[in-house]
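User: Last request for today: this protein with magnesium ion, please.
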Amino acid sequence: MKNSKVVARSIPIGANKETTIKIEGLRKTFSRKNEEVEAIKGIDLDIKEGDFVSIVGPSGCGKSTFLHIVGGFIDKTSGKVTVRDKEVDKPGPDRGMMFQESALFPWKKVYGNVAWGLEVQGYSKKDIKDRVEHYLSLVGLWDFRNHLPSELSGGMRQRVSLAKVLAFNPDVLLMDEPFGALDAQTREKMQSELQRIWSESKKSVLFVTHDIDEAVFLSDYVVVLTKRPSTVKEIIKIQLPRPRGIEIRKSYEFVDYRNHIWDLLHAEENVKSIEGISYAK
Ligand code: ADP
Ligand code: MG
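Assistant: Here's the final one, the structure of the complex with magnesium ion:
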């Protein structure tokens, strides 16, 4: 790897960008019966305005826990999490969260699902219509506004979920393996779609995945966590040009990033490269 590795505990991006999410000395220990499980030992991260940052790490290392703490759904043990200088202590509309399974009401049509959060927040009918139309068009599903979730494919349901989250106009998007339940081809299409939507919406994104290709394809930075109790093992700056077409996955640079991250993850799991099989390094 040449010039792409940024070995640091916080992300040193250009000083001209504002910090959106700041994580300082984050620790999380779960207590279960008489047992203490240390999930996160210490994470420091500084995520800047408009950056796409992926978190990868061994299974069970605390990725979901980390994202749920930033979302305000789980209490931290110690440390500090701020979003736009406001300390996080509960969920809020400044943070849009998306999960592997779409959180849609099965009895509501697509329009009603996206409108729901806005109705709860007391937006006017006209504002709701404008926003729902804008965001359903952005994800390419305005024509499906009168469909029920059960009448859509898994990929379409995740696009509705994304429209629902974006309609709040959150400062940041927090995504926990949002394409994890989709087949490989739909997944690639969704990654391209997300890249387009992200570049139009200019949101900061914190994206958890176990898929290295997905992380490299989408990200400005990939944060590799150690096994549990997790700390930041390495931060890799992905210097691939944007917009990234699907062909980029075949490029030498892309494969180089993928192999480097693969090595980091497998070193955590004590898996050695298979002898006799050569790969770009
Ligand atoms: P990941 O998303 O990286 O696979 P998680 O964040 O789900 O990992 O879990 C990290 C660790 O914390 C695991 O060992 C898991 O068993 C533990 N853990 C997660 N949630 C709880 C909980 N509510 N109570 C006790 N232990 C938990
Ligand atoms: Mg998880």
